[in-house]
Amino acid sequence: MNQVLNKNIQLLVVDDEASITDGLRLFLGAEGYTVETVPTYGASLSATERKRFDLVITDLVLPDNPQGGLELLRRVKSRTPDTEVIIITGYGSVPQAVEATKAGAYYFLEKPFEPEQLSLIIDKALERRRLLAESASLRKRLSLRSEYFNIIGASKVMQTIYETIESVAKSEANVLIIGESGTGKEMIANAIHFNSHRAAKDFVKVNCSALPKELIEAELFGYVKGAFTGAVQDRRGLIAQAQGGSLLLDEIAEMPVELQPKLLRLLEERRYRRVGSTENQEADFRLISITNRSPREAIKEGLLREDLFYRISTITITVPPLRERSEDLQLLTDHFFRLFTEKYQRPLQGFSEAAYQRLFTYHWPGNVRELQNAIERAVLLSKGPRIEVEDLPFSGKPIDLGLEDFHVPPGMTLEEIERLVILKTLQRTQGNKVAAAQLLGIHRPRLYNKLKKYKIELPRKTGPHKKVKRDHSPPRQFAPATNGHREC
Question: Using an 8 Å Cβ cutoff, are 15 and 59 in contact?
């Protein structure tokens, strides 16, 4: 890590061996950290009460307290939960390591160790601290907007969708929302309606695929007594119920093709007739449509009229699948974890490293809805203090890195092989360096250094449709914090 970046980072080293404290003061100080050292448990308490440290490195056994390291860990975490703690010891055991991890230690390192080894662990611990701080900051900045829209997402594409909602909500433009099942299309429709001047009126929702073909016209337009067998009295349709408000047509591509001309005429003339009636009714509603199909493919297959498509899609919002906005996964996981631990009163500490890694490498075909169900099930079934891999309901097939066809030509040096691996990984992530660093298991600064070292240059994306993708590397031990167009 760069010395300029390290200079404001405060480290505390607690050990009664002068060779260790002096050596670490010199080594870590040379890396730009501000290092303070103390030899005893009592002195460490005084230091942490007087000053806030970013990271504490402490021996497990201290001269004035055999369990001083664990006691200090608990004290530090109770006062400043975001301070990372690394425990070092020459008398390590598995039970002690488990106890330290449960108490919130980032790492349990046995002596002897190389300073470079500790430096790497410090780098990872501070990176996790930074990621969690960024996540908390994002939640704080977006909490009002997220709560208002009831939508969780801080990615660039979701921010664009928020801006689109704000831009079109006050208009009368018809909106078409496209996206896979479970991506939150109906929540976006809700946000548009409840931010419009029609919010005080009804928001009527119709699932075009759920109504029988022979009944959907009568349900939408209403009917008069005697219009068909069973019509024993006049009935208002859903369009009449939406008068002055908004009408949501879910799965619009599943609407019977023979009914689509009537809907088109209704949108053009703002008049309609109930089934069996000769009298025109006035229509005053804002139309929002939803589909999980590609409209163009639905038109080619004869399922959606092209003229109707143009009428319903004055504004089109495309909601990306969760696998394409993995930077939102941590916020969504935080949200659902807090929601269900509070709902079911389960005092869980978070996710194990393996479970959290599985969440980040799963492809989420069911999108946000699947994630919500997975977290709810895990919260209910977890038997330990943290959610484990076996508590998750899916097989958790990892993302294919595409390296099975990677062959090393004979005679290549290690550096040449490393360069090939980096290039292959960048190809798999479509040039996303953050995602590539995660897949390679290294931190972003290290990847950037290697790109410079091997003179790897990626083409810059240009144009109005540039996609911005971010992907936060998952922290080692994740515990959620306690405090959600135009053509998009």
Answer: yes
112 preceded by a cis bond (ω within 30 of 0): yes
pLDDT for the residue numbered 101: 80
Phi, psi angles (nearest 5°) of residue 232: -90, -5
Q: N- to C-terminal Cα distance for the chain?
A: 37
Token pair 């990847």 is found at: 447
Query: What was the pLDDT predicted at 439?
Result: 74
Count of residues in the chain: 488
Mean pLDDT for all residues in the chain:
83
pLDDT at 157: 87
Place of tokens 């919002």: 317
Residue in this structure with the two tokens 């990306």, named with its chain if needed: 320
Q: How many whole angstroms separate alpha carbon 293 and alpha carbon 252? A: 9
Q: pLDDT tens digits for 355-399?
A: 887 887 788 889 999 999 999 999 999 988 999 988 988 744 444
Taking only the tens place, the pLDDT of each residue in 54-109 is 999 999 989 998 888 999 999 999 889 889 999 998 876 677 777 888 888 888 88
Decide if 277 contacts 224 (C-beta within 8 A): yes
Choice among 126-135, 143-152, 266-275 with the minimum mean pLDDT: 143-152
Query: Which tokens belong to 373?
Result: 């169900």
Helices and strands in the chain: count of H runs, count of E runs: 19, 14
Q: Dihedral sign, CA of 332, 333, 338, 343?
A: positive
Residue carrying structure tokens 């349900």: 219
Q: What is the CA 135 to chain-centroid distance, rounded?
A: 10
The distance of Cα 285 from the centroid of its chain, to the nearest Å, equals 34
Query: Tokens 């080594």, residue?
Result: 27
CA 316 to chain centre: 23
Handedness of CA 391, 394, 400, 405 (dihedral sign): positive
Q: Which helix (DSSP H) or strand (DSSP E) does residue 33 occupy?
A: none
Reference 254, options 219, 212, 282, 225; nearest CA is 212
Q: Is 457 helix (H, G, I), strand (E, B) or coil?
A: coil
Q: Strand ranges (DSSP E) for 150-190?
A: 175-178
d(C-alpha 211, C-alpha 318), whole Å: 25
